[in-house]
Every structure is written in C-alpha cells, then in structure tokens.
TrEMBL record:
<dbReference type="InterPro" id="IPR015168">
    <property type="entry name" value="SsuA/THI5"/>
</dbReference>
<feature type="signal peptide">
    <location>
        <begin position="1"/>
        <end position="20"/>
    </location>
</feature>
<dbReference type="InterPro" id="IPR001638">
    <property type="entry name" value="Solute-binding_3/MltF_N"/>
</dbReference>
<dbReference type="Pfam" id="PF09084">
    <property type="entry name" value="NMT1"/>
</dbReference>
<dbReference type="InterPro" id="IPR010067">
    <property type="entry name" value="ABC_SsuA_sub-bd"/>
</dbReference>
<keyword id="KW-0732">Signal</keyword>
<comment type="function">
    <text>Part of a binding-protein-dependent transport system for aliphatic sulfonates. Putative binding protein.</text>
</comment>
<protein>
    <recommendedName>
        <fullName>Putative aliphatic sulfonates-binding protein</fullName>
    </recommendedName>
</protein>
<dbReference type="GO" id="GO:0042626">
    <property type="term" value="F:ATPase-coupled transmembrane transporter activity"/>
</dbReference>
<dbReference type="GO" id="GO:0016020">
    <property type="term" value="C:membrane"/>
</dbReference>
<feature type="domain" description="Solute-binding protein family 3/N-terminal">
    <location>
        <begin position="23"/>
        <end position="235"/>
    </location>
</feature>
<dbReference type="GO" id="GO:0042597">
    <property type="term" value="C:periplasmic space"/>
</dbReference>
<comment type="similarity">
    <text>Belongs to the bacterial solute-binding protein SsuA/TauA family.</text>
</comment>
<keyword id="KW-0813">Transport</keyword>
Amino acid sequence: MRRLLTVLALTLLALAPARAEETLRVGDQRGNARALMEAAGVLDGLTYRLEWSEFPAAAPLLEALNAGVIDAGGVGDAPFTFAAAAGVPVKAFLAFRNRQDGLAILVRPDSGIRTVPDLQGKRIATNRGSIGHQVVLAALEEAGLPADSVRFTFLPPADAKLALASGSVDAWSTWEPYTSAAELGGLVRVLRDGNGITPGLSYAVASEAALTTKRALLADYAARLARARAWALKDPAPYATAWSRLIGLPEAVPLRWFGRAQYRTVPIDASVIADEQRIIDLYVRAGLIPVSRAPRAEAIVDPGFSEALAAVR
C-alpha cells in the first residue's frame, strides 16, 4: 500500500506542471472582457494561463476561433448566428442581456432623414453580418419595408464613420463604443436604436473543441466573467476607468455606454434559445441565410454552464 501511495504521489507531482501550463486563449473586442475582469479583480488565483487576443470586431474574432487560434471569445448575437450558419464549429456557453440604446442607426445631425421609412433608397454603412446589420433589418421589418429597400455599404466601423461624415453614405448602423463616442462628439443623431426590435443578446462563445478539451477552464472563466458583470452593474465607474486606460478613449465614452447598457449575465435557458431562433428566422426572411443552412438555435448553444452562473448568483 505504501508503495502504491508513493507511486500515486509521484504521478500527481509529474502531472502538476502540465496542468499549470494549461492555457485558455480568449479573444476580446476593444478591451471589453479583459478590462472588465481586471478592474473587478476576478483574475486572481487562476490555475491556468489566460491568454488574451484583441480584435476590432466580432467577424475577425470568429475567424480566429474557426482557425483554432483562440478557444473562446465574446461576440454579439448577430455575428455569432452568421458564423454558426456558415459552419464555424462554435457554440454559445454564456449569455448576456443589455439595453440597446447603443445599438443604433445613426445619421448626421443636419440630415433630412427623420424616420426609418425615410431610409428607402438610401445608403447605410455597417459590417456585414454584424449587430448593426441586424438592427437595420429589424427596423425595416418594424416599418413594414423589405430588406432590399435600402442599399448596404459594408465597411468596418472606422471607415463607416468617415463615410458618414463625408456624405458618401446616408446612415451608419453601429454599436458601442462607436455610438457613444460619435454622440458625445456631436457627430450624429440617433434615428432608431435597437430597443424593442432586437433581443439585446451577446454571448461568450467557444469552439466545439475547447468545449470538449477545456471545459473546466471555460467553466471557471464563465464564473469569473459573471462575477465581474455583477460587480460592474452596481457601479460602472471603476470599469469605465480601466476600459478608458486600456483603450485610450475618454472616460465619458464608457461611462455613457456602460451606464445605459446595464449588462447582466443570464443562463442559456428557453428564453435565450427562443430569442436566438428569432434572430435566425430574421436572417432567413431577409435572404441572408439560406433555409438549407439555417441552424436550429438549440443546436448552437451549450446550456451546461448554468452551475457556474448559479454559484455567482
């Protein structure tokens, strides 16, 4: 027995360095999760290495995940849906709901466009497959207009902002922090935000490979991220300070963004799955996702991380 215990102890010691070297590679957008978790102080005591990669938007983050460069990341519901429909092996394992003031169709302050029907025939800049794309489609449906009643110009946010300022497009549909920065700069007027027409969902997502091989790490990361979200919901100011320092934008931008968004973590339950299915159906109706490629919402989520969230709540 003593010999068996000695062998077991030596085996555990041999395995310890390998476990300590485990790495979870997480993609972040504009310092979002990283700034939040660092400001909230939830990264102490990690038993694995957390490796961050920064991306300007969800599309390149999801491309990196598809290529196996990262294991997980945070994205909006729209790009996640497009990626899943395109066959990217990704699933959502944690969900967040927020108000949609910062997801908005923007026009110049002096624009004659006053209502969504005024957009007919106009040029709108946004990222293809982004939540900006989503809110335009939802706003058109609300107004009883077809998806092809506007002309899309697909541009990344920085280029779209310049296109709107120069007059080469009539509107810009975007998200935070771009909306708050443009509003505070007096550069835009909100024509329609996403409240009431989009579900206000975003996700922590992971590759199917990571969900199998790094599940314990993802569960720990999910619990820490949920704790950080709960901390920021009580007082967004410290998070805004950390985010501003990391990204280099004035604190007024994240204060406006976080204060009105009111991000809260929710389990992937029946209501989240139903809202995700509505997003899929919206894109099918708009002709952006072929019926043959449209996934079922329950097939692209992993509800098995509810225990990590329950421990936080």
